[in-house]
Fold Non-SMC condensin II complex subunit D3.
Amino acid sequence: MFLIFRGATASRVLRKVKLSSSVRWLTDFCPLASLGWVDAVWDFEFTETGPLDAAIVIKNGSKEFKTLYSHLLPYMTDTEVSPLGTDGSVWTVFGDNGVSVKSLVAVLSYFVLGGKSKTASVQQRISALQASSLYLLLLGIPGSVVNKMFHQILFDTCLNTVSNCWPQSLVKKRKKDTLKSSQADGKRSKPHRKDNDEMDVDEDEEQDEEVHLSPQDLLKIREGVVLLVKSLLRLLLKFPLKDEPQSADNCVQMFAKLTNFEPVIGELSFGAGQTMPELAYYGLWLLCSSNHGDEKVSLRRVFHRVLYVILMMSKGESGKPSLMMATQAVLAAREQAIGFVSHVVDELKEPALPFLRILLQHISFRMVDKTDYRTRGAQAVAKLLAKMPCGDYASFIKWLFDYSRQSKVAYRMFALDVSMALMEQPEREANENVDAELVSFLSHRFLVHNIVFGRRSDASPTVRGHALTCLAQCLELPSMNATRSIKELFSTIFDGNVMLVFSLAKDTMALLKRRVSDPKTNVRKCALQAMMGLLKHNVIMLSEGNLTVLSERTRDPALSVKKKALQCLMDLLTAHPENNLVQKAWLRGVVPAVVDAESSVQEKALECLEQTILSQVKSHGSYSYRDAQQTLTWNLLGLLCDHCQDLGRYFSRAFTVWSKQNKFTAAFINNLISHTEAEHAAGAWLLLSKVASSCPRLDYGKILDAWDDLVRSKNVTVATSCHILCVIGDIGEHLNEDTKTTNIQINPSNSLPNFLMWTVLANQNLNYALQTFLNQHCGELVSVCEAYLSGVILNENGAQNLNEDLVVKHLYTLGVASLHCPSKVGKRIVLLVQSVLTSSHSAPKITGSRTLHPSCLPPGKLCLQHEELTRKYLPAFARELELCSELAVRSNVVVVMCDLCVRYTNMVDRYVPNVSACLRDKEPLIRKQTLTMLTNLLQEEFVKWKGSLFFRFIAVLVDSDPTIASLCEYCLVHLLLKKNPVMFSQHFIECIFHFNSYEKHKTYNKFPQAKAKFSLKGAQNKERRFTIYRFLLVHFTDAQRFNITIKISQNILACFVDGELPLDGDGAAVLAETFGILSLKEIKLSALSEAAGAGGDEPQEDEQMAMAKAVMQVAQKKVVSQVQKKVFIESMIPIIINLKSMLEQKRSPVLKDLMGYLQLTMQDYRSEVKEFFAADEQLAVEMEYNLKMYEKEMEAQMAHCSLGGDAASGGTPVSTRPSNGGRSWAPLPLPLPTGSSKRALPRPSPSAPATCSPKDFPSQTGTALSCI
C-alpha cells in the first residue's frame, strides 16, 4: 500500500511539474493583461473584448494550447484532487505561477471571440476552437465551481464557436438550392423576389465572406471541432447543467446541427464513437440524463431538436425552420435520427413513450405538403410506432383517425400516407394490456375502412384523389389483411344459400364510377388507377360496364387522364390476356387514341399497338397456342375483324404512321402470308390489307388464288372478302394486262364478287382501257338490272313470281354500277326506280318491306349526278322522313339528304328542318345518326344555325338515351363551340321562350317550323329545361355571364314591368323560370367563386405561391365584385323593386321566386342591404329578416352534420354540385362528310360508350397537441 501511495504521489508530482512548465507562457502575458482590461471583459459579460498589448502573442501557434490541454486533461478525470484547490491541484499550480483565474478566463474569451468574425483567419479560428476546448476542460476539473469559472454567456459562446469557425459557404449554397427545389415543386411557381432590405443584408454577408479555406485548413478546423465536442462530452459526464437550462438547450442545439456534419461509413453507434454524428448523438444521449435536469424536460428538449432532423428542416436560433434538399446526406441524417429515437425508447422504456407520442404528433402537424417529404415522414412515423407497445399503438391510431379529419388538407393527406406505411408492417395482435375499446384500432381493416376509404368523399379533390391512389396501392401490399379489407368493401357475402348484398358495396362501386368522371383531373387519374387495381386483382367483376369505364377515359379532355387510361388498359391486359372482355375494352380504348388531337397520346397508343400486335407476328411454323403473347395478338386481330370492325379507320391510321417509319420488313410480310391459309387467316388478311400499299413485292399469284378460293367458298366472311379486295387493289398496278382483261360473265346473282374485284382494280389504275372496260361491263350490269326490274314492275304478273332477295340485289347493284357509267343511265331506268319508290304506298304487292329499304338509294346516287333529279326527288325524300314507318328507310333518307346537302347546299337548305326533326325520332339509331350527320355539316358550314336548328340540337342534351345525350354534349363542346364561341350566349334568352313554348314576345321564338315536337313546356319538364340552362351557363365566359344577366333584366324582366308581356299563366311561368336561372350558381362569375372553391388540381403548391395566389384571388374578387355591385344597383334594383310592387298588387305566386333570388344574391352584400334598397325600406327590412332566418337554418344544418353526418360520410362532407352538368368524356372522333352516297346503307354511327356516368359536381375537432 505504501508503494502504491508513493507511486500515485510521484505521478501527481510529475503531472504538476509538467503543468507548471506548460503554463509559463500564460505568465508571459497574463500579468500584461491589465486589471482594467480584465474587469472590462467581465463587465461586458464576454460579449466583446478590447485589444491586448502587442507583446502578447503565441509564439508557436496553437502548440501551447495543445500542450496545456494535454497536461490539464488528467486533472479532469482525477477524483483524488481536492476540490478546494489544495494538495497540489491545478488551481494551486495556477496560483503558484501567478495566473489569476479571472484573468485566465478573460484571456481565453479574447481568443474565443477572435474566431467569431467571418473574416477571421485560419489561425484565429483554430485558436478560438482550442481556447473554447480549454475553457470547457477547465470547467470539468474539480474546483471550477469554487473558482467561479462558469459563466453562461461565455459557455454559450464557446458552443457557438463551432458554427462560427466552420465556413458557411456550403450552408449558403444549400439554402439557395433549397429555395430552388421549393420553387420547382410548385407547377405555377414564380421566381422568389426579396425586399430591398433583405437583398442588402445578403450582399453584405457575401462581401464579408472573403477568407478562402483550403482543404488542409478545413481539416485543421475539423480537428479543432472534434476537440471541442469531446471536451464538452467529458464536461457533461461530470458537470451537471440542471441549474442552467438555457445552456442545456444550447448544447442540444449544437449537437443537433452536428448530426449531419459528415457522413458515417457503416452502422452508426450511439456510444462515444469517432465520427462527428456519433459524438453528437452520444452528447444528446447524455443530455437525456437526469443529471442535466428533470428527465421529462430533458427528453422533451432533445426530441424537439431531433424533430427537425426527421422533418429534414434546418432550425436556427430564431425564425421559421427552412426545408432542406433531400440529398443523400440529409436522408442519412434523418435515418440516424430515427435510429437514435428508437435507441432512447429501447433504453428508457416507459418514461420515453409519452414523449415518443408527442414527437409523432409534431411530425404529423409540421410535415410539409410535398409528396417526397410526406412519404418519408410517414415511413418515419411507422418505424417509430413499431417501438410502441400495443396499447400505446392503438391509442395513437385512434388519435390518427381524429387527425385524418382535420380541416387542413395537408393533415388529411399525411394521415393517408401514414396509414399506407403502417400497412406495410405486420398487423398487431391484441394482448391483455389493450383496452377492449382500443382493440379495433390494431387491425389493418380499420386503417383501410376508416382512414383510407373514409377519405373517398373528401371535400378536397387532392385528398379524395390521394385516397383512391392509396386504395389501389393497398392491393399491392404483402398484407393479406389489407387486401381482404378492400374486398369487403366491393364484394358480396354468402350466408348458406342466401346471398346478402350489402348496399355499401353497391354505393361504393357507384361512387368510384362517379370519381372517374370527377370534375378534377387529378381525381379522375387516381380513380382510374383504383379501378384498374380492383379489376386486376378480381376485387370487382371484369364486366363490360366496368371495363367500359376505363376505355372511355382514353377520350378524356385532360391529356394526363388519357395517358393514364392507356397505361391502365395496358396493365390490365397484361394481367388478364386471356379475357375476351378485357381485349375488347383494350381495343376500344387504345385504337381510337391513334387519331387523338394530342401527339403524345398518339405516340403512346402507337407504342401500345406495336408492342402488343405488330411486334408479336411470327411465322405460322413457330406459332404455339402456349405462347400467351402470340395468342393474344391473334385474338385481338380476330376481334378487329368481327366485333370491333368500326375501329378499322383508326387502325388504318396506325399503319399509315408505321409505313413512314419503315416498320414493315420482308420477314414481317412473309410471316403474315404464312397465316393466310391457317386458322388465323382473317387476322392475317386484315394486316395485309393495311400494309400491302407500302410493303415490299408480294406473291401476287397466291393472293389471286386466295380470291378464287373465296369466290368458291361459302364460309368466308364479308370482312375478310373486303380485306382481300383491298390487297388486290394495292397490287393491281403490278398485274399484267392478260390477268386484268380476263372475261367475266356479268350476272349480279352469282358473279358480283368478280365485278367488285374489277371495280377495285379500275379505281387503282384508271387508264383508258380499264375505264372503257368498266363502261362496257357496268353498262351491261345496268342493262341486266333494268331488264329484271322491268319484268317485275311493268309486267302484270310480275308480282306472282317475286323474289325479294333478287330485287334487292338488282336495286343495289344498279345504284353502284350507275356511279361508274352515268352515261348508260336513261330515263327509263330513272322512271323504274321512281316507280319503286312511289309504289311503297300504292302497290304493296310488288314491293315488300325488304325491297323498300334500298329503294331510296338508287335515286340518291342518281341525284348526285343529275341536279334536276335532285330538285324532283327532294320533296319525296322529305315526305318519307315524315310518313315512312320503316327504320332503315328513314335512316337511308337522312344519309342521302345530308350527302345531297354537300353537293347542292342551297337547294337542300329549305329541307334542313325536315332532317333536324329526326332528332326527335322514336328510334335511337335515327337520332344518333342525324346528330352525327348534322354535326359534320355544321362543322363544314354546309348548314348554318338558322331557324330552330340550335334549339332542336340543344334539346338532345336531355335525350332519354344517355349515350345520345353524351354524344350531343361532345359535339357541342368539343366540335361546334370551338368554331363559334358565342353561339351559346347568342341563343340563351331565346331558349327560355322556346322551351316554354312562349310566343308572346315580339322578337323571340318566331319560327315558322313546328315547335310542339321539341317543346319542353310544363312543370314535368322543368328539370330537363334547367339541365340545358346549366349546361349552357357552365360553358360561358365571365364576360358572357355578366352580359347575359343584363340582357335578361332588359329583355325579360323589364318587359313584364313595362307591360309588354302579360303576367298571365304562361307569363308567370316564364318569369318564375327567369328568377330560377338568375339564382343558379353557374351564372355567378367564376372570378367570385374560385376564391372560395379553388384548389385540387395542384396539390403541391409552394406555400409562398399559395399565399400569393390567394392574395391575387382576393384582389380580383374585390374588383369584379365592385363592378358587379354597381351594375346590380343601377340596372337590376329599380326593375326588381317595380316588379315586386306589381307582383304584390296581383298577389302573384312568382313573388316567392323573386324573394328567393334576392336572398341568394344579397348573401354577398350582407352588410349593404339598406344601401341597395334605399328606395324600398320595407323590402330592405324583409331581406334582412330573411337573411337572418337563412343563417340560423344553415347553423342548425351544420350542427346536425357535425353530430351525425360525419359518421356516414367518413370524414369531411363532400361538396355537392348538380349532377346534371356537362359530362367530361368524349366519344370517338366523328367522320367527316364525303359527299358521296356510297355509304347510303345503314351504317353504324361513331361508337359511343353504352353508359355515361354524370359528373359529380360536387370541421372536425382534433386531439389537443402537447408542446415539445
Summary: The longest helix spans residues 1103-1146. The beta strands are 313-314, 322-323, 493-495, 498-500. The chain has 57 helices and four strands.
